[in-house]
Design goal:
six-stranded mixed sheet; alpha/beta; UDP-N-acetylmuramoyl-L-alanine:D-glutamate ligase; nine-stranded mixed sheet; 15 strands; 2 domains; Protein-Tyrosine Phosphatase, Chain A
């Protein structure tokens, strides 16, 4: 009965209302999809555009068949609060019949795809004028079987682009790069690899504070951008992750397409901050620097995070890694292949979950010292021991898929006042038990 009400009544109702709201107000739609970095890219685009336009972006995780229409209908994130739902219902009713003079000029909508035909449904609700493809990883591979099938589904976001539309892609992604030659509609690329239309290079991480115990607090990054004949230095005071710099580049491209200049876009990005759980820099206890990347994990995002750790100055680096989920038949291979990346940067490795047993085995095969590898079944098993295992004066990266609940480990290593910087801190998440997955 519940499934019937959802599929036959609620979803069609939300979709219908959202279509009417778009038809009444005619906002420019920027759709963001990809296997990694969707939320950060959405935030970067929003950060750029809000400096010049009236703009709304998807709030929280409102990016699926329910969340997408809700983001169109209202700027309220409902969660489980009846009063907020009442306000959304009122906005929905009003939006069906009246245009709103204060409605956003631009909607930046995250469009998530977990299974085949998901994108078909989302673009039946709203068709973006600007489509952003952040990258094609191997998350959700158990449902798609091959990365090319993921690309085939996600590229549908650009299906209805017109002559004023634009597809924006990450040039560094080998699956997306060929689109520049093979795609029939307007396309602009960004990245660090030669050939990108908006090219970044010379990435450097800055430091502004000594935490003691041999650890420097990484603070922001700088790089140079090359667009057409213009070279410009860019400073992102709150960002150190290369993955988030990709997000910033996407934001620049969107801004340029909508009439902003390069100076305006890069100045706006000085306010760009990482979301909780996405390479968030937090001062830890005992002079440690915690890099909380616990929102989710996939092979590409793990390797990207480890690249950042390699750039950071510290005499001790601890990597705490949980399982990567939804990898299907290649799960064992991908967990094993990370061993080489870990061994090249880590002084100590703490692993969580059954899938990282393969990582453990491969680390030992590579000659990584056995006494510097610790393994736990679930994240809460690590809570009592992790402080002593990490010790003092370390840079600590914590990462894993959402189902591993790796934020439970971060909670122990940061101060109470920093808990708000971690993901999944609301009451509903706190109540959920941590189970083996």
């Amino acid at each position: 009965m519940k499934d019937f009400l959802l599929k036959k009544i609620l979803l069609p109702l939300l979709a219908g209302i959202a279509k009417r709201v778009v038809a009444k107000n005619k906002p420019i739609i920027v759709g963001v999809t990809g296997s990694i970095g969707k939320s950060s890219t959405k935030e970067a685009i929003y950060t750029v555009l809000k400096s010049k336009f009236r703009v709304r972006r998807s709030l929280g995780n409102l990016n699926n068949e329910i969340g997408l229409p809700l983001s169109i209908i209202s700027d309220i994130e409902p969660k489980k609060k009846p009063l907020k739902w009442l306000k959304i219902c009122w906005q929905a009713l009003r939006g069906c019949f009246l245009a709103d003079k204060n409605y956003p000029e631009i909607l930046v909508l995250e469009m998530a795809v977990d299974r085949p035909k998901d994108m078909d449904y989302l673009i039946s609700i709203v068709s973006p004028r600007i489509a952003v493809l952040t990258g094609i990883g191997i998350s959700h591979l158990e449902f798609f079987k091959k990365p090319k099938n993921i690309l085939k589904e996600k590229i549908k976001i650009a299906k209805n682009l017109d002559k004023n539309g634009l597809l924006i892609v990450n040039h560094d992604d080998p699956l997306l790069r060929p689109l520049k030659k093979n795609f029939s509609k307007p396309i602009v690329s960004y990245g660090f690899r030669k050939g990108a239309d908006v090219l970044a290079k010379d990435l450097k991480i800055g430091y502004n504070e000594e935490l003691g115990e041999g650890v420097s607090l990484a603070k922001g990054s700088t790089f140079q951008i090359n667009y057409q004949t213009v070279f410009m230095p860019v400073k992102l005071p709150y960002i150190i992750s290369k993955a988030q710099i990709y997000s910033a580049l996407a934001g620049i491209v969107v801004g340029l397409h909508l009439g902003m200049n390069l100076v305006e876009t890069t100045e706006a990005l000085r306010g760009f901050k990482s979301l909780p759980g996405r390479m968030r820099l937090i001062k830890g206890k005992n002079g440690n620097l915690i890099i909380d990347d616990t929102y989710n994990a996939a092979p590409a995002s793990v390797r990207s995070a480890l690249e950042v750790i390699a750039l950071i100055k510290s005499r001790k680096k601890v990597i705490i890694l949980g399982d990567m989920l939804e990898l299907g038949d290649i799960s064992q291979y991908e967990h094993g292949s990370l061993a080489g990346n870990l061994a090249s940067v880590a002084d100590k490795v703490i692993l969580v979950g059954q899938r990282t047993l393969e990582t453990h085995k491969k680390l030992i095969a590579l000659g990584f010292p056995k006494d510097r590898i610790v393994h736990f079944k679930i994240s809460t098993d690590a809570v009592a021991k992790v402080e002593s295992l990490v010790g003092k004066g370390a840079v600590v990266l914590i990462k894993g898929s959402q189902g591993l609940r790796m934020e439970k480990i971060s909670e122990v290593l940061v101060s109470d006042k920093s808990l708000k910087e971690l993901p999944r801190q609301d009451k509903s998440w706190k109540k959920k038990p941590v189970k083996e997955v």
